[in-house]
Amino acid sequence: MNDLTPIDTKQSHGVQKAPAVNHMGLDGFEFVEFTSSEPEALADLFTKMGFTHVGTHRSKNVRRYAQGDINFLLNMEPVGQVADFRGKHGPSANAMAFRVADANAALKLAVERGATPVEGRVGPMELNIPAIEGIGGANLYLVDKRGGATIYDIDFEPVPGATVADHDVGLHTLDHLTHNLQRGRMAYWGDYYERIFDFREIRYFDIEGQSTGLFSKAMTAPDDKIRIPLNESQDEHSQIEEFIRDYKGEGIQHLALATDDIFATVDKLRANGIRFQDSPDSYFDMIDARLPGHGHDVEEMRKRRILIDGAPETGGGLLLQIFTENMVGPIFFEIIQRKGNDGFGEGNFKALFESLELDQVRRGVIPATKESA
């Protein structure tokens, strides 16, 4: 492969649907829960990514790691859903949570709309946090909006002396997360989020690399804070299919974490030992022609391998992004800075896809093509 070109505009389109009524009172992501048979490796990863262990569950083997308004839970319980999930998937994201106006009312409405409720063990003086079955058997919790005592105040003991800012690298919000799906399942999961949570489709992509391809449907909640692109492979060799084989099922593919200064954040993460996916120099050679008037130092982006996308000349703003290598099994992270652009870096999708394809070639997953040789 000699260059990375922006995605063909014929392959992507915005989908204009009016925002739905927010019946659930959705208000962003509350947390994502991870598990592993080697929990200290995840604990070390979270610390390197700028998160601090600020709380330990009162009765369960669960830790809370926090940075900005992002919460990661590390669940090491030996029994129950998390143990079953860990046994099947290995290092994984076994749950996520949405903030809602009224958790019990949201659960009732979700079940009325066809969701499957999940029962969990609740200890003395602990909150009973409603949950439904989500992607790949992961739990999807419904957590009351903050306003007074939070779930962390009630269910967790604070770590003495620890603060959210102890290891901060500038990450403040979970911007979006993606789902990798079995082929033919995009309609099912799109309907799941539309029917239960009033999500709407905002973008659709048909992405083709040198050897493989994928479809991606970007969904957003009525609050516009919970965004979940759904990815489905076009063939049996793509990164989506490799993920599903490695993960042994559908699940969260990557989590995008927002910063207000991606250059400083990436420098800190690299200093902490976080490894990022590479992009060839040809990508950076094309930036000025592809995005005239972007106003950023291309050499500084090249040095850090930070990608850029947007439409600055037509008022579409910019976004800057970079992707880590796989960090939790096949799950990786995205670092993103939005500067007036609400997309997902679709101009970079083909670049990212082909970069991942090159990695697959190096690892012998797919054969080299004339372009990638």
Automatic annotation (TrEMBL):
Domain VOC: 28-145, 173-325
GO biological process: L-tyrosine catabolic process
GO molecular function, one term: metal ion binding
Cofactor binding note of this UniProt entry: Binds 1 Fe cation per subunit.
UniProt keyword list: Dioxygenase, Iron, Metal-binding, Oxidoreductase, Pyruvate, Repeat
Cofactors demanded by this protein: Fe cation
SUPFAM superfamilies in the cross-refs: Glyoxalase/Bleomycin resistance protein/Dihydroxybiphenyl dioxygenase
TM stretches of this protein: none
Record's keyword annotation contains Transmembrane: no
Annotated residues for binding of Fe cation: 176, 254, 334
InterPro entries linked to this entry: 4OHPhenylPyrv_dOase (IPR005956), 4OHPhenylPyrv_dOase_C (IPR041735), 4OHPhenylPyrv_dOase_N (IPR041736), Glyas_Bleomycin-R_OHBP_Dase (IPR029068), Glyas_Fos-R_dOase_dom (IPR004360), VOC_core (IPR037523)
Domain of life, per lineage: Bacteria
Claim: Repeat is one of the keywords in the record: yes
EC number annotated for this UniProt entry: 1.13.11.27
NCBIfam families in UniProt: 4HPPD
PANTHER family registered for this protein in UniProt: 4-HYDROXYPHENYLPYRUVATE DIOXYGENASE
Family, per entry: Belongs to the 4HPPD family.
Protein name listed in UniProt: 4-hydroxyphenylpyruvate dioxygenase
Encoding gene (name): hppD
